[in-house]
Design goal:
By secondary structure, this protein is an alpha/beta fold. It has one domain: Vaccinia Virus protein VP39 (Rossmann fold). It is built from 8 helices and 7 strands. The protein has a 7-stranded mixed beta sheet with strand order 3-2-1-4-5-7-6, with helices on both faces. α3 links the parallel β1 and β2. The longest helix is centred in the N-terminal third of the chain and has 26 residues. The radius of gyration is 16 Å and the shape is globular. The chain starts with a helix and ends with a strand.
């Protein structure tokens, strides 16, 4: 029961438990967002898409680097959306950041609401485990990337997921080979993994 609750909250944080999950995700973001931004090689004028919101720290880092561009974030929880609107009110009013509500879940990343070739960079934090159709979602990410664009997918190793109570019975888990295959099947020309982040977190990097 606890495992199913955790899986649901990681997918779509809600109410007070959701706020606690968001704070946990913020801590997770802090540990990996600097390296992720380095691997994305964000330029000042870049148009960037972040799938998922987490605790907001990654979005803050990405927006700071794309300070002359625009950053869009897909948010799949009403409570997290409200929190993000408070945190980034000024940037939203200036048009630097836009927070786009999802519909019923992370599976709606299967149909990204953007024209092909819209973004220079795309990132997603700890969301692949709740994608209903990972192959289709990865294909959509490749579609909205410009030529020579870059996608970075930070994800925890399977043992970390196990420690917080998730299992294959309540959430789809992936190893390195799975993610590499998904990226290549989606049309990424090259892919590699970076494991330099403390805590054993890995970052998958795909090049359009």
């Amino acid at each position: 029961m606890l495992a199913k609750t955790l899986a649901s909250q990681l997918r779509q944080p809600y109410d007070r438990i959701g706020q606690a999950v968001a704070r946990f995700l913020s801590f997770s973001d802090y540990r990996l967002s600097t390296r992720m931004a380095e691997l994305l090689a964000i330029q000042p004028h870049d148009r960037v898409l972040q799938i998922g919101f987490g605790g907001g720290f990654t979005l803050e880092r990405v927006a700071a680097r794309a300070y002359l561009g625009k950053v869009s974030a897909l948010v799949f929880s009403e409570s997290v959306l409200r929190r993000g609107q408070r945190l980034f009110r000024e940037q939203i009013e200036r048009g630097h950041i836009e927070l786009l509500p999802g519909q019923t879940g992370v599976d709606h990343a299967e149909d990204l609401p953007f024209p092909s070739g819209s973004f220079d960079k795309v990132c997603s934090v700890d969301t692949i485990y709740s994608w209903d159709d990972a192959r289709k979602t990865m294909g959509e990410i490749r579609r909205v990337l410009k030529s020579n664009g870059r996608f970075v997918l930070p994800f925890p190793p399977l043992e970390r997921i196990g420690r917080i109570g998730l299992s294959r019975s309540v959430s789809t888990l992936y190893d390195y080979d799975d993610i590499d295959r998904l990226m290549r099947e989606a049309g990424f020309g090259d892919t590699h993994f970076d494991v330099s982040v403390d805590g054993g977190l890995a970052l998958a990097v795909g090049y359009a």
